[in-house]
Fold this sequence. Notes:
- The complex is a heterodimer of chains A (about 290) and B (about 220).
- Chain A is of the alpha/beta class and about 290 residues long.
- Chain A is built from twelve helices and eleven strands.
- In chain A, the strands form two sheets. Chain A has a six-stranded mixed sheet with strand order 2-1-3-10-4-11. A five-stranded mixed sheet of chain A has the order 7-6-8-5-9.
- In chain A, β1 (about 30-35), α2 (about 40-55) and β2 (about 60-65) form a beta-alpha-beta unit.
- In chain A, α2 (about 40-55) runs antiparallel to α12.
- Chain A starts with a helix and ends in a 23-residue tail after the last strand.
- Chain B has a single domain (about 5-175), classed as Orthogonal Bundle (MetI-like fold).
- Chain B contains eleven helices and no strands.
- In chain B, α1 (about 5-35) packs antiparallel against α8 (about 140-155).
- The longest helix of chain B has about 35 residues, at about 190-225.
- The interface of A and B includes residues 158, 182, 201 and 202 of A.
Amino acid sequence: MKKALxxxxxxxxxxxxxxxxxxAADAEKTELIVFAAASMTETLNQIKExxxxxxxxxxxxxxxxxxxxxxxxxxxxxxxxxxxxxxxxQMNQLDASKDKEAxxxxxxxxxxxxxxxxxxxxxxxAVPEGNPKGIESFDQLAELLAAGDVFLAMGNSDxxxxxxxxxILAFYGLDExxxxxxxxxxxxxxxxxxxxxxxxxxxxxxxxxxxDAFSAGLDSVDAATAEMCGQVxxxxxxxxxxxxxxxxxAFLDYLTGxxxxxxFEAVGFSAMTKEAEAETEPAPEVSPEATPAA
Amino acid sequence: MSFDWYPLWxxxxxxxxxxxLVFFLGIFFAYYAARLPRAVKGMLDVILTLPMVLPxxxxxxxxxxxxxxxxxxxxxxxxxxxxxxMTWYGGVLAAxxxxxxxxxxxxxxxxxxxxxxxxxxxxxxxxxxTYIFWRIRMPACRQGILAxxxxxxxxxxxxxxxxxxxxxxxxGRTATISTTVYQLWRTNDEKGAMFWVLxxxxxxxxxxxxxxxxxxxxxxxxxx
Lengths: 294, 224
């Protein structure tokens, strides 16, 4: 009995080894690895189905997270073909054509000539169902924050939406560290975490993108103007470490095409026209990066 | 800016309270579970050990499902001013849930290897069950109980996944050492992250050294 069992176990393990290689035989397909900001989860998943239907020899593999995290992963050598960031900042940090201020580590990952401004988004103030705290605007939020009377969820300083939120706080003359000390803000590691905290009513309100609020079915009571946090631009580029630069470029071109644009605009993105890398200056930096109190 | 020591205080507080809670709950269940009929015992055992086997994020998700602000229980508790989401004592809940199986299993193991004749002797001497439990059984199982307690404390101190999901990261309110390290790493504050890592190492070393010392002392006493 024991012998039979051990034989069976050995055969099972052998089989387990054989199976993955059976799948790998499918490697005729080109695998495109796309690192994209978390706020693009729903739209890119939809686009994946459309794109793979039209291009059966391509498989899209996504990695959604905060753009800061993705940039760090790319920097540390992760395999990636296309990078779409939620703010120019992270893309600049990988772009060798940018000066030392924008690219302090002098990294060179962006394939020159492939970078475009893909989408524009809006930063909004989202509230849980029923708006229990009755927050109606950013102005009101600022008052409540100053009085220590509200609990706000925001992205941390590595997350683009967190960076936009910092600009908004600075616009109202609020000191982020003071707010953190007072326990008025809680930090999420990417925009989806903040969105979830608002949906779960764990917080009174949160600053997320219009597209995230839409996708999660949240009420957004106010949108930030360009004066408050600058334009929210999503740059996209092929990386020079890509194993399939032509396929990557083809996908990037598809993203600017009509079908993809329709998907993006359905959730609230605005497609930017494909100009030769238009560097849009964000609103003048009102305050330097304030890292939250550790 | 004065350095924010809150994560240290908060982590220790959460770990200590969870440890105490889990100590009593663990030995309670370990003692009484042995008396249950076979079928019930098996089922209960699985349920009580589950948090140890499930990934912490899964535990955190379940806790949110139960105590979330949109859930019936969460809304009900809020009426009494109790909110496990985004509060430090929510961290106690999360840490207790994941640390409980460690105490429970270790205590059960200790109790099962307890020499029942000692308890019987106590009974023939007319001692109460409570006396027998606390003055005969517990001291006899001291090593196992201590091991379980240390494990539970360590687990509670190092709890990250369930804690992060349930109480998030609010500086000065819900930040623990583990969530702080993660946040500092994510925001590229390498120095800050390393600092807290070293603090945690220091605490863990002290705890383990103390336990070893206690065990050594006990062995000496037994030999004497």
